[in-house]
Amino acid sequence: MRKAIAYLIAAAMTLCFVGEIFLLVRLPNIRWDTRLGIPLQIIGFYCVGLGVVARSASLKEVLDFPAEMTSPNLMEFIAGNMTFLSLPVFTAMIAMSSSRIKGGSKAFGCLGRILWFVISIFIVFVYLPFHMAVVMPIAYPGYVMVSALFESLQYSPIDQDFQGFQGQASKHFRLRELMVSDPVAAKNFMIGIPALILAMGIKVLALFVV
Prior knowledge:
The protein has eight helices and two strands. By secondary structure, the chain is mainly alpha-helical. It has one domain (2-97, 105-154, 173-196). It has a two-stranded antiparallel ribbon. The longest helix has 49 residues, at 106-154. It is globular and about 60 Å long. It starts with a helix and ends with a helix.
C-alpha cells in the first residue's frame, strides 16, 4: 500500500513538473526574468533552508529524513519529504492537546492553541499542497544533478591540502574530505547558493535587458 502511494505521488510529481514547465513557457505577459527566477528562487530557498536544518546535531541523532530529501532515488526523496511534512502537523496536534501539564500561563496556553490551530490550517491547506505540487517537482531534478556532482567528488582519488590561520594557530584541511564529511549540507549548499546567486543575477540583468 505504501509503495502504491509512493508511485502515485511520483506520477503526480511528474505531471506537476511538466505542467509547471508548460505554464512558465506558455503563460503570456510574464517577463523572461520572472520565468527563470521563480524556479531558481524556490530551489535556492528550499535547499539553503534544508541545509541549515540538516546541520542540527540533535536532529541528526534521531532522524535521517534530510538525507532522504536530498536523495536521487525518487522513492527515498518522496519518503523524506513526507516525513518532513508530517512533523509540523503532529507538532500542532501535540500543542493543541486539551490536557495540560501543571504550570504555565492559562492565557498564553489558550492563545497558543488558537495560534497553533491557525498555523495547522495554513500548513494543511496551503503549504502542504504547495510543497507537494510545486517545491518537490522543481527540487528533485536539481538533487539528481547535484548528487551526480557530489558522487564524482566523493569518489575522486585525489584531494587538495589547504592551510588556514586562526589567530596565531595554523590549521590544515583537505578540500574533498571537508566537502564529503556532511553530504546533506554539501548537496544543499552546492545547489541552493548558486541558484539564489543566479536568480539575483537574472534580476540585475533584467534591469538592462528588456
